[in-house]
UniProtKB/TrEMBL annotation:
Protein's name in the database: Luciferase-like monooxygenase
Every Luciferase-like domain range: 23-302
Pfam families: Bac_luciferase
Species assigned in the record: Pedobacter frigiditerrae
Family of this protein: To bacterial alkanal monooxygenase alpha and beta chains.
One Gene Ontology term, aspect cellular component: cytosol
InterPro entries attached to this UniProt entry: Bact_Lucif_Oxidored, CmoO-like, Luciferase-like_dom, Luciferase-like_sf
GO MF assignments: oxidoreductase activity, acting on paired donors, with incorporation or reduction of molecular oxygen
Length: 343
């Protein structure tokens, strides 16, 4: 068992650019800029956006465009993808896009890569066309992308301009054990989607650590866990706010997706026993509560998993309450650091 503690952990943001009931997509983008600026001031390390398509509640489909928008409205926080679904794109195009971003915003851009389509199969066919088998080429495409972004491709007939020599940091994203093997063999940092796919989290990070091969960019394994957090001043208020998150996941489970709904007092009569069980399985790694409860839960989670960084997504309906959730989390981590220093 390692010695990683909550107090020593970098903490970051995953923004799905969620669309809220009664608001517009333009409102979503304004809120994302506001959240990025707010979390930058609070000391968050990264602000990542995820590629999704054909989902009414998620507006981050043009991920690289939105990354540029956020980076342009912030100063120091790292901005990146959590992730770009590489089989949807040519590696050269991704290299050019992120090379452009890294040239405009040097030392601030991250490139997280996923294998899934980020959508349903019909939409994936529309995106990929004749490249529908592209997921099978994911390992080779990651290598191509690394080459395009490196200093070593100058003599090639195909070059990423801009992109070449930017060496944008690449992460492998995963929600299963398959990605763990790839991240380990390539010696890349590994970000796990435990915010919606917690089932294989412990197994995947164990595989990653056991099989890790040091690379030119990373000497030892580095695990980031993405988690759901709904923080409020009291446990009761956090539970109320979390009903928006639970209804969002209920839409995923039932196939009846909705915009993010306002919170309700409780979920009684809203879901069936089967739906409740399915949602709770997806939210097995979710932290909902006031400061005292969250401190204990997060300390336990970090001690058990020995992760190196946490990335937080907070599906909270009210924008001010969402900002406050991120404020409380930052305060919890900083206070745990102060306690560690004083002890």
């Amino acid at each position: 068992m390692g010695t990683n503690q909550l107090s020593a952990l970098p903490f970051s943001v995953l923004d799905l650019a969620g669309v809220i009931e009664g608001k517009t997509i333009a409102d979503t983008f304004r809120n994302s800029v506001d959240l990025a600026q707010h979390t930058e001031e609070l000391g968050y390390q990264r602000y990542w956006l995820a590629e999704h398509h054909n989902m009414i509640s998620v507006a981050s489909s043009a991920t690289s465009v939105l990354i540029g928008h956020i980076a342009g409205h912030t100063k120091t926080i790292r901005v990146g993808s959590g992730g770009i679904m590489l089989p949807n794109h040519s590696p050269l195009i991704v290299a050019e896009q992120f090379g452009t971003l890294a040239t405009i915003y040097p030392d601030r851009i991250d490139l997280g890569l996923g294998r899934a389509p980020g959508t349903d199969q019909l939409t994936a066919m529309e995106i990929r066309g004749e490249r529908f088998s592209a997921p099978h080429h994911f390992p080779q495409d990651v290598q191509k992308l690394q080459l395009y972004l490196s200093d070593y491709n100058g003599d090639s007939k195909v070059r990423a301009i801009p992109g070449e020599g930017t060496n944008v940091p690449i992460w492998i994203l995963g929600s299963s054990t398959e990605s763990a093997h790839l991240a380990a063999s390539y010696g890349l940092p590994y970000a796990f989607a435990s915010h919606f796919a917690p089932t294989y989290f412990m197994e995947a990070i164990q595989i990653y650590r056991q099989n890790f091969r040091p690379s030119a960019t990373l000497a030892k394994p580095y695990v980031m866990a993405c988690i759901n957090v709904v923080a409020a001043d009291t446990d009761q208020e956090a539970e109320r706010l979390s009903t928006s998150l639970k209804r969002l996941f209920m839409g995923i489970v039932t196939g009846k997706r909705q915009l993010l709904q306002p919170p309700i007092d409780n979920m009684d009569g809203v879901w069936s026993d089967i739906e409740e069980e399915a949602v709770n399985q997806m939210l097995a790694i979710a932290f909902i509560g006031g400061p005292e409860k969250l401190t204990a839960q997060l300390q336990s989670f970090v001690s058990q998993t020995q992760i190196d960084e946490i990335m937080v997504t907070s599906h909270v309906y009210d924008h001010k309450a969402r900002l406050h959730s991120y404020e409380l989390l930052a305060k919890i981590i900083k206070e745990s650091l102060q306690l560690a220093v004083n002890s």
